[in-house]
Backbone:
């Protein structure tokens, strides 16, 4: 027994070492280089004097105040609205929608990368877009209406775009949290006491769900406050959100702009930290107020209309998302599709028939990046979980924080600095370096997806295997991994989706040499040819979808004669 | 004395390497892969670069990897971060399609390889006199640090099915926009094309256009741009979306023209409208116009960073781009439609015939229709113009 715990400790130590060296250190190094540059230290451009000048220059940037306000409004707004809709929708449909069925409906939305979704939405919503075209004959528009429906100065289109992606994510997270609670019993008890369905949700169920979804909500908040690709495509441009402004500064012909850009990158980090602090303050406030409200015991007004509204809006969001993806596919098959035609005037396969024009190579690169980073992340996650098992230890809060860290820190705050650090090591622009950078962000998701099923594994099977003489490694490879095939493949599919969606890590660490479907799609989104953009975006969305399909089909085939292991057996 | 004379002779010889070096360059270049960093927003240019790579691979064993940029400054930043990290050789950028301010920035920071242009055998087809178009990039002397490859001219495009008479001069734009509210815009001035639009107006409206060829200063900037801001204040309220937001670049604006959201687009390539029609990206009725007094023009160049890993291969590619047959192919409207940078007077019969035989199209303007080429202002004007615009209109 002692040697087994020792073995576990060794494995655990090794995994922790890899995670610290491979994930924590790069983030710290990136922050370090960014901070140095923000205080005037970037020897490459002859900046070698410590000063506050970069911060002053940042403060004097035209439109910075508007830009900060926009960032907060879009980031916080999108997160709050998404959370409200997701909770309302869950409250309304829970019981009618199992976690599995929900997962299946939500998968396409989770799989579609942000950039592809944004490109589709930009066409759908624009004044000359699909929706306007549908109304044109009715309203007698001979020219597109003069409405700012995308890139609007208020950031409305950006909020909507973020919501289309984040609501499904939060729905899935909430559904998974609910599966751990006796919701039905609570509802029955609550209703028998005369509380309405919505009120039971708010008073009884949400306080229990919240601790389980707090971290994912923070991930959404950090993302929404610092998203680059979606903000580039859907957000306002004069001024843009802070992250886009920083991207522009980082790539300004005047090289000294990298200094204020670095200061801005730290400001972006501070903004996210501030939002987290506000979230915690709000949590305490709601807890205190909620307790008083609970004790008061009022049966309250009915929340049903609110729930119906949430269901409605969520349905509308999903319809928008689906139409956006459909419009990408249509554009890739169109030749001419002028205003106000509802469907292309003429069709062509030309955009698809020339993989040599670039999409072939980008597809190959994307597949390599996704496969490499997902494999690395899976191996690391399995080693971590196995180490926990063998050492017989529960995961501490610090370990969870370590896993979530790359998702909570805004990418732009450390990626440029990380690139400088990578350059020093001579690995920038390498495919391997980009795989590593992707793994930073793939690992947390894989870990999150795999942890619960891993812990839910029936321990009796392992004890049985052990009593038959199987050692720890044999138990891992012959029992655990085969049984966990479905969750492992699901985690892999999530990993692929996360990797395919990465924009900034590919751009910065790849030094522009590594062209993935995502970087190309974002570049093309500012070109004049929607048909080619359509090809890239369709491929970009199709790849994760294929991965999910494989995650569904492979276990079904492998376990076709093991009823207890088919997906019906394991939820 | 003799020693000094010999030394200076040796220095002179070293400073102007003869063409005898070229076979060595070709030899060293064989097997290299040139990472050509070039703006990737134009499908025809992308296809042309791919073709160049196939040809140089076959003829010289030099393959080309097109690194597609959204903005040329990305490549400059990359070279810079490499120097930051002490990567002074074996850099990741071999060749950059570059324009005025980025060139000036790299030249000032000593980030360029060269001079190399006079070593290229095909440089014999260029007019390299000190004041020739190929010797100045935005009034900044090229000094052999970048090699020309395509000619750019500022033009407007419009849909003749929607509007009959586009504005005749830059001064006419505010009236036209007032009569057609929301139907005109320009790319954001942080973008090259948006800045060029402002410069075109500046060149026409400045009290003393000749002053624009010198570096700017506070007093000159205030005096020369005053009419410009008055003009712009009259124009802006009538722009698309009330002049609150702007398309990111000319491609996005061209898409707006195609979508019918605006009536006018702009380009730095007189042939682009005809080419876009052929590609199904603009309606058949799209046409080109230039302001009556002519428009800004410049030459696009390729430059090699100081730390390029494949500098020899990059020179082979730069030289190949100047081959008369390649330039004629580039000017072909069915291929790319960019005007050639070669000096017609230096071409032989055969090469001239190749240019004369190029196909034409209804939306392709003739050289005469384009009018005179106006010189680019000194880059410091563009930088100040962009900053001042942001200060005034980004709230």
Residues:
């Amino acid at each position: 027994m002692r040697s087994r715990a020792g073995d576990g400790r060794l494995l655990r130590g090794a995994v922790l070492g890899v995670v610290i060296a491979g994930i924590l250190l790069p983030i710290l190094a990136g922050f370090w280089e960014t901070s140095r540059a923000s205080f005037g230290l970037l020897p490459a451009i002859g900046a070698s004097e410590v000063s506050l000048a970069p911060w002053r220059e940042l403060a004097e940037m035209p439109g910075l105040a508007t830009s900060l306000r926009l960032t907060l409004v879009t980031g916080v707004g999108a997160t709050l609205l998404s959370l409200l809709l997701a909770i309302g929708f869950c409250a309304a449909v829970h019981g009618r929608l199992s976690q599995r069925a929900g997962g299946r409906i939500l998968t396409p939305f989770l799989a579609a990368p942000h950039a592809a979704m944004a490109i589709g939405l930009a066409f759908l919503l624009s004044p000359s877009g699909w929706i306007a075209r549908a109304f044109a004959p009715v309203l007698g528009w001979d020219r597109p209406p003069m409405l700012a429906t995308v890139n609007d100065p208020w950031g409305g289109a950006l909020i909507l775009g973020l919501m289309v992606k984040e609501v499904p994510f939060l729905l899935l997270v909430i559904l998974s949290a609910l599966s751990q609670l006796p919701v039905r019993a609570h509802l029955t008890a609550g209703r028998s006491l005369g509380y309405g369905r919505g009120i039971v949700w708010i008073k009884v169920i949400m306080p229990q769900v919240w601790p389980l979804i707090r971290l994912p909500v923070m991930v959404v908040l950090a993302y929404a406050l610092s998203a680059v690709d979606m903000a580039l495509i859907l957000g306002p441009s004069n001024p843009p959100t802070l992250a886009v402004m920083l991207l522009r500064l980082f790539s300004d012909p005047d090289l000294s702009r990298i200094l204020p850009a670095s200061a801005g990158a730290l400001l972006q980090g501070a903004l996210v930290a501030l939002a987290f602090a506000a979230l915690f303050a709000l949590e305490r406030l709601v807890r205190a107020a909620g307790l008083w409200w609970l004790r008061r015991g009022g049966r309250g007004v009915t929340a049903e209309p609110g729930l119906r509204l949430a269901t409605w809006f969520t349905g509308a969001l999903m319809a928008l998302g689906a139409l956006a993806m459909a419009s990408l596919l249509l554009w890739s098959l169109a030749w001419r599709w002028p205003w106000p035609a509802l469907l292309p005037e003429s069709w062509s396969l030309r955009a698809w028939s020339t993989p040599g024009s670039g999409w072939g190579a980008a597809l190959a690169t994307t597949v390599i990046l996704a496969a490499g980073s997902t494999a690395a992340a899976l191996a690391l996650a399995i080693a971590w979980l196995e180490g926990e098992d063998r050492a017989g230890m529960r995961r501490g809060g610090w370990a969870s924080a370590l896993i979530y860290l790359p998702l909570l820190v805004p990418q732009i705050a450390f990626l440029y600095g990380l690139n400088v650090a990578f350059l020093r090591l001579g690995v920038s622009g390498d495919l391997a370096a980009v795989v590593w950078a992707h793994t930073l962000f793939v690992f947390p998701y894989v870990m999150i997806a795999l942890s619960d099923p891993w812990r839910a594994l029936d321990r009796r099977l392992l004890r049985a295997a052990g009593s038959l003489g199987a050692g720890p490694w044999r138990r891992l490879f012959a029992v655990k991994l085969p049984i966990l095939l479905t969750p492992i493949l699901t985690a892999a599919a999530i990993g692929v989706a996360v990797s395919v969606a990465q924009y900034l890590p590919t751009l910065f660490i790849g030094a522009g040499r590594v062209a993935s479907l995502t970087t190309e799609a974002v570049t093309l989104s500012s070109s004049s040819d929607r048909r080619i953009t359509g090809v890239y975006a369709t491929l970009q969305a199709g790849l994760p979808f294929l991965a999910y399909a494989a995650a569904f089909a492979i276990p079904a085939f492998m376990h076709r004669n093991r009823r207890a292991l088919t997906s019906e057996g394991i939820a | 004395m003799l020693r000094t004379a010999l030394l200076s002779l040796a220095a002179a010889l070293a400073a102007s390497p003869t063409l005898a070096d070229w076979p060595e360059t070709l030899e060293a270049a064989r097997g290299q892969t040139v990472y050509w960093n070039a703006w990737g927003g134009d499908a025809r240019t992308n296809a042309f670069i791919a073709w160049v790579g196939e040809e140089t691979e076959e003829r010289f064993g030099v393959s080309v990897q097109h690194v597609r940029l959204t903005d040329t400054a990305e490549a400059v930043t990359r070279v810079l971060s490499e120097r930051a990290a002490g990567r002074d050789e074996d850099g990741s950028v071999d060749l950059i399609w570059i324009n005025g301010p980025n060139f000036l920035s790299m030249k000032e920071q000593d980030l360029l390889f060269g001079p190399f242009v006079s070593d290229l055998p095909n440089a014999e087809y260029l007019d390299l006199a000190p004041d020739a178009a190929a010797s100045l990039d935005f009034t900044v002397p090229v000094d052999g640090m970048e090699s020309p490859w395509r000619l750019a001219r500022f033009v407007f495009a419009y849909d003749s099915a929607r509007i009959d008479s586009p504005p005749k001069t830059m001064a006419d734009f505010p009236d036209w926009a007032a009569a057609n509210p929301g139907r005109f815009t320009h790319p954001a001035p942080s973008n090259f094309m948006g800045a060029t639009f402002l410069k075109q107006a500046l060149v026409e409206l400045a009290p003393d256009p000749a002053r624009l060829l010198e570096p700017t200063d506070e007093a000159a900037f205030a005096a020369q741009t005053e009419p410009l801001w008055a003009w712009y204040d009259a124009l802006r309220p009538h722009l698309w979306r009330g002049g609150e937001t702007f398309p990111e670049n000319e491609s996005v604006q061209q898409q707006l023209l195609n979508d019918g959201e605006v009536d006018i687009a702009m380009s730095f390539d007189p042939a682009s409208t005809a080419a876009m029609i052929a590609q199904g990206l603009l309606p058949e009725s799209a046409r080109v116009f230039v302001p009556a007094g002519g428009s800004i023009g410049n030459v696009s160049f390729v430059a090699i960073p100081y730390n390029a890993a494949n500098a020899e291969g990059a020179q082979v590619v730069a030289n190949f781009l100047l081959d008369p047959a390649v330039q004629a192919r580039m000017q072909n409207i069915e291929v790319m439609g960019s005007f050639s940078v070669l000096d017609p007077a230096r071409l032989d019969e055969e090469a001239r015939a190749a240019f004369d035989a190029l196909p034409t199209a209804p939306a392709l303007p003739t050289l005469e229709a384009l009018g005179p080429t106006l010189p680019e202002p000194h880059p410091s004007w563009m930088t100040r113009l962009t900053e001042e615009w942001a200060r005034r209109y980004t709230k």
